[in-house]
Amino acid sequence: VYFPLGMEKLIVCAHKRPNALCRLVCFPWAGGGTSQLAQWSTLLSNSIEVLCVRFPGREARLNEPFAKDMTSLVNEVTSVLLKEFQEKPFAFFGHRCGSAKVFCQVILKHAAVLKDSGFLFIASGTTSEHSEEILSIKRIPISDTKDEEVLAYIQKIGGTPPELLRNKDIRKHVVLTFKEDLRVLQTFSFEKAEMDIPFCCDITCFNGSDDIPHDLQAWQELTSGDTSFYKLPGGHFYLLEPSNEIFLTKHITRCIENAGL
């Protein structure tokens, strides 16, 4: 068996490449699963192995309770992947605020190890934890938010096939998963003032041209490495457009190669 048992539960790897030079660790968006990002392995070179994190409460982990807080999520990710981080260089990719915050805390939790490992940080459709945009999301009263409001928001931003939302049971689970993921996001407190410049890696930020403006420059304040910013045509889920997906994966490949990972 190539992956340890705990890794098989947490990680989806559509194409295992034990001889890969680098790993791309993908974190899905709030309310989402692994199906789209796990398939990026077909678009990336054979030198990159794609690992997509599968959170509890969805897909093969549907019967598991949702994570209670950000700490429990991060502890699971790091307990399973820390050894992998030390074995090979890697890059993190996450879309939307929920996933970006998970790998932010993974980086903070193991900054010393990761600094020696060599890694790249790719944020999509989101801003950094200390921005006003994220602070406003944290103030949303989840328990008082009606399912109809959450569903309307999910339909507005896209990313979920409309035919799935027509199924009552699937629709109910999508809304529940989104709310639980947002609840977890609200348990993560990030005090930039106490961290000085916590990251040493390069950060690449992507955003859809028709999405709401994100304070992408806020990422620049968090790292001593280089930061770069790109806009691709489309809305919040611009990355699901085939042409953008091809551009994004090619660019990630170039970033990894240029970083010497």
Automatic annotation (TrEMBL):
Its EC number is 3.1.2.14. SUPFAM superfamilies: alpha/beta-Hydrolases. GO terms for molecular function: fatty acyl-[ACP] hydrolase activity. It comes from the Eukaryota. One of its GO terms (biological process) is monocarboxylic acid metabolic process. InterPro entries: AB_hydrolase_fold, TEII, Thioesterase. Residues 23-244 form the Thioesterase domain. It is an enzyme of class 3 (hydrolase). Belongs to the thioesterase family. This is oleoyl-[acyl-carrier-protein] hydrolase. It comes from Sakesphorus luctuosus. The gene is Sast.
